[in-house]
Each structure stands twice: as C-alpha cells, then as structure tokens.
Amino acid sequence: MRLANLIQLDMPLNTATSPHAKAPITVSTVMLQVALALIPGLIAYVWFFGWGVVINIFIAVVTALIAEGVMLRIRRQPVGMYLADLSAVVTALLLALALPPTLPWEITVTGTLFAIVIAKQLYGGLGYNPFNPAMVGYVVLLISFPREMTVWVPVVSMSEYPLNFLEYASMIFTGKLPAGISIDAITEATPLDSLRIHLGLGSSVADIRATFGIDEETSRLLSVVPIFGMFGGKGWEWVNAGFLIGGLWLIYKRIISWHIPVAVLGALMAISLVFYLFEPARYASPMFHLFSGAAMLGAFFIATDPVTAAASPSGRLLYGAGIGILLYVIRTWGGYPDAVAFAVLMMNMVVPLIDDHFKPRVFGH
C-alpha cells in the first residue's frame, strides 16, 4: 500500500525517530563489563587471602592510568578519550589479580609500566599490540623477581598470623611486618607448587602421605596436604568459581564468545583426564587443574582479549585448545607451577598463522 493511501486512510505510522541504526557497543562499555565481571572472583580472593590484592589493584590502576596518559601525551594522542576507554584499567586489574598479595609496591609498578608502556603503547596502543599486555608484564616480573613472585600467603583460616589491611599495606609499602612475625610465618607454597614438587618430581601419593603423616584411609589425592580443598586448592577453588561466574556472565552479555573459554577448559580437562586415568597416583585430576591457579581467570578474561586472540570461530577453538594443552604441559613438566601467562603469550605468537589459515569465506562464494 502506498504512503499516500496510508495518509489518506488516516492510518498511524509507528515509526521511531532517527537515528534508526543501533549504536555499536563501545570499547569503554566492553571494558566496564569485564571489570564488573571480575567482582565475584575478587570478593572470593579477598575473603580467603586478605586485602593485599586490593592494595595491588590500587597501585596497578594508578600506575597504568599515569603511564597511559604520559605515553599518549608523548605520542600526541587525545589523552582523555583513550583513558576513558578503560583498557588500561582492565590491564591493571588482570595483572594485579595474578600477583602475590604481599608483593612490594615497586615491583607492581614495574610490571604495570612494562605492560602499558612496552607491551601496549610502543606498539601503537590498543588494537595494535600483538601480545597480551598484562601477561607480558607478569612474565617480566616472574623472570626478573622469581623469589618475590613466589611468596604467597595461605588461606586466612589456615594462617597462623593473618594480616589485616594496615599490616598488608605496611608490608607492601615498607617491607615491615608486625614485631615477632617473619615472612616465613605468613607464607607457604601454593597448591600447584606443592603438587608439582611432590608428584612432578617422582613422589607417589603414598610418599606424600608419609611425608605429611596422613593416614591412607582418611586421605585422598587432593586432600593429603592441608592446602588442598575438596577438588582444588583450598580457597583457590572458590576464587576460580567466582571467575567462572563472571566469565559466564560475559558470555551471556555477548561481550565474549564461548569458543575460547570452552576450548581452553575443554583441552585442559581432556589432557589432564588422560594422564589421570593412566596413572592417578602421579597426576592430578581434571577438577584440580580447572579450579587451581589462574585457570578460570585465564580462560575467560585473559585468553579472550579480542586484540591478541584469533579472529574466526574456528581459529578461536584452535587458539584456546593450544592454551589449554600448553597450560597442562608447563604445569606438569615445566619449571613454573602455573603457566597461564606463558601459554597465552606462546599462542599469541601463533595467532597470525591461525588467522591466515582460517580466513572467513568471502560473501557470495
């Protein structure tokens, strides 16, 4: 029916006002959603391991914003617009969540500066960096400060001297602890450290039981040492559950696609299940690997970085599977107990090849 006839018949036109095209999602919206999705894991982190991570986040965020602003000014780019996209804040959040909660402030500043200045801005800023900036900063710190980067606190409920906020701040900014308390009294090996040392170096479950004086009838593989929980590291399993909830929220909101997280966790679960079924006395269960360390944080928040990840759906599956396999290989036989950063950076190097092989079909062909 012609428009003239509609007008003649006095029929209403339910047409919305312009613009009629839906505005695309902005970078700042995406980054804000990612930051909000980190909250459940952060709450669990603070509950089980204290306030040190909050102080690390504050240091990293302030450093990232200052470094980004200075570099943008040097590069003669609009400072306010790029700071408002929150990409520097998300980089700082991801780096801080991967750092030990008692790490000295200057080391956190060093890692954040390297992530923002070297790994991001010197490549041209957001959208041009080939490697995940947060993981570049983390690896630099891990290689440069191996002793400080391995000092982790136990779960608050298991700690003989749990630190409060002011004590954490004193230790981070001055290196001083309350009188009569040494650093060894408030730190211990992480579950992944303990597993790699005792199982990865040839010890059997029976050897671990004998070492810790645990009765065979009342112990299982993941509970022979007090730092192990129901199926993962005590405390860490809840932190990973929090990041899992946040990651599923990002998929629901279509901020990220399901391909990379499913591929990372699926590959990690599959390869760990094979070795666990082959020799359960020497290899940890798939649930332990999924809910210990930074598995969920890496799968949902780090590996899914749209700039450094593969572009096509098929490429993302291959990219994620490679991260999951490398994660297990380095955890089990490598020199580092957790390997999310190394696995992600190694697969970042392969992304150009993956994208070249999995080119999307040209429309019409």
Walk me through this protein's architecture.
The protein is 57% helix and 0% strand. The chain is built from 17 helices and no strands. Mean pLDDT is 82; it is low at 6-11 and 200-227. It is globular, with a radius of gyration of 24 Å. It has a domain at 27-183.
Topology:
Layout: H1 3-8, H2 27-37, H3 39-49, H4 52-74, H5 79-83, H6 87-97, H7 105-118, H8 133-144, H9 165-174, H10 191-198, H11 205-212, H12 236-252, H13 259-278, H14 286-290, H15 295-302, H16 313-333, H17 340-357
Essential attributes:
365 residues; mainly alpha; 17 helices; 57% helix; globular
Short characterization:
The chain has 365 residues and is an all-alpha fold.
Mean pLDDT rating: 82
- Give the uncertain stretches in residue-range form: 6-11, 200-227
**Residue share in β-strands:** under 5%
Distance between the termini: 36 Å
Largest sheet features: none
Annotation, overall tally of beta strands: 0
Percent of residues in helices: 55-70%
Q: How many helices in DSSP terms?
A: 17
Radius of gyration: 24 Å
Q: Structural class, from helix and strand content? A: mainly alpha
Strand/helix succession:
HHHHHHHHHHHHHHHHH
